[in-house]
Design a protein that fits this description.
The structure holds 2 protein chains of 2 kinds. Chain A is built from 10 helices and no strands. By secondary structure, chain A is mainly α. Chain A has one domain. Chain A is globular, with a radius of gyration of 21 Å. Chain B has 2 domains: about 30 residues; about 110 residues, Beta Barrel (OB fold (Dihydrolipoamide Acetyltransferase, E2P)), CATH 2.40.50. In chain B, strands 1-3-4-6-5 form a 5-stranded mixed barrel. Chain B is elongated, with a radius of gyration of 22 Å. The termini of chain B are far apart. Classes of the chains: A mainly alpha, B alpha+beta.
Chain lengths: ~250, ~150
């Protein structure tokens, strides 16, 4: 029994809000630097340096926002669901806080993907919106994120709100492979994936390089946003604890 | 792992598997209905309902596009490599519409098996390349995008 406790000790320390708050406080300036560097250079490279597309001209450049936002919207859902599952199993408050913080970020990224897609769709396809499998499943993803957000507010007990939204997050995970494979499984207006995991990507290298920089930038930005939202949630939840009070009095006496 | 946590883990896995199976079965059963358009082959085989609006998608056949000189009327064929479908439309075509490119048309298939379109959308493929590369690849590129995709 004693070894059992020791084996999982590191895991529980990870679940300490105070530890999380302090360690991310040290990391955040660096992460923020990396995110701004990557995003600024990626945008400059993609919007000004990369060549226009043979058929779409300059309108293809929306790919540098659309694709990274869509990738992180999908990956972010797995992060949210995983954090919810860990919270459900180990009843770690910290994990639930991460889950709760992932919801607004994911919703915003999903909205960016849908919005940029609509803006691109009008000149390219001839319509802002169609109800094809890819676009509709992406809209369902937005509603899942909004559902998690809404459930958080639907309970007076924080613990109940955490558990209920974790279950919703888990149930929604099936939507992620459906979104990803929708363009292959069904006839859709949306084109199949340009970036492929298993074979060569069907985008010219000069256009691909800034796209990869943007995707990396979005990943780091996601981590920054998740840390900031989670820190705010920690302060809200732990407002009565001694270390948060000490923190606040330090800040105000400065 | 503590027994109660193991039990919770089992519940989480059960929730995941059960909900995924249920939704997966629904999606699998809906199958064809989730398709946004019919291929010309499906329409030729009579799988698309007649007399009600349907959508059809395929490559616009090279040399098939005919524009009326007096009006906005256009006619063209779409093909999936197996069957062809004649489309008639009156209106402005989207920028990316072109021969050898994919398009999706919405309308009613009439008694002469011509689709009277009320809407024409251009379907972009997943290929991105600069103009000079497209020019250099020339006809080879056009051939490849003409046969690419699963229409």
């Amino acid at each position: 029994m004693v070894t059992e406790v020791k084996k999982w000790q590191w895991f529980y320390r990870l679940g300490s809000p105070r530890w999380f708050y302090e360690i991310t406080g040290r990391w955040l300036p660096w992460l923020l630097c990396a995110a701004s560097l990557l995003l600024a250079s990626g945008l400059f490279w993609g919007l000004l340096v990369a060549p226009p597309d043979a058929r779409q001209g300059n309108s293809f450049r929306i790919i540098y926002l659309h694709v990274p936002a869509a990738i992180l919207a999908l990956v972010g859902y797995y992060i949210m669901a995983l954090a919810g599952a860990v919270g459900l199993i180990w009843r770690i408050k910290m994990s639930f806080m991460v889950m709760k913080s992932a919801a607004p970020i994911g919703a915003a990224l999903t909205f960016i993907a849908l919005f940029t897609g609509a803006v691109w769709g009008k000149p390219s396809w001839g319509t802002y919106w169609v109800w094809d499998a890819r676009i509709t499943s992406m809209l369902i993803l937005l509603f899942l994120y909004l559902g998690v957000l809404a459930l958080q507010r639907a309970f007076s007990s924080a613990e109940m709100a955490y558990r209920a939204s974790a279950i919703l997050a888990l149930v929604g995970t099936i939507n992620i492979p459906i979104i990803y494979k929708s363009v292959d499984w069904w006839h859709t207006l949306h084109q199949p994936a340009t970036l492929k995991l298993t074979s060569a990507s069907s985008i010219h290298i000069d256009m691909l390089q800034p796209l990869i920089v943007m995707i990396c930038g979005f990943y780091v930005f996601y981590v920054v946003a998740l840390c900031l939202f989670t820190r705010a949630e920690i302060i809200r939840r732990e407002a009565t604890s001694a270390w948060v009070r000490a923190l606040v009095s330090n800040e105000s006496s400065r | 792992m503590h027994a109660i946590r193991k039990q919770r883990l089992q519940w989480v896995i059960f929730t995941l598997v059960a909900s995924s199976t249920a939704i997966g079965l629904v999606v699998y059963t809906l199958g064809q209905n989730i398709n946004y358009f019919y291929t010309p082959s499906q329409i030729a085989r009579g799988e698309a309902p007649l007399g009600v609006p349907v959508r059809a998608g395929g490559m616009v056949v090279r040399g098939s596009l005919v524009r009326d000189s007096e009006s906005l009327d256009v006619a063209f064929d779409v093909s999936d490599g197996v069957a062809q479908l004649r489309v008639e439309y009156s209106g402005i075509l989207p920028d990316l519409f072109g021969e050898g490119q994919a398009a999706i048309v919405a309308g009613v298939v009439d008694a002469d098996a011509i689709l009277q379109a009320t809407e024409v959308l251009a379907k972009h493929d997943e290929n991105y390349m600069p103009p000079e590369v497209a020019d250099a690849m020339g006809e080879a590129y056009r051939q490849s995008i003409g046969s690419g995709g699963d229409y």
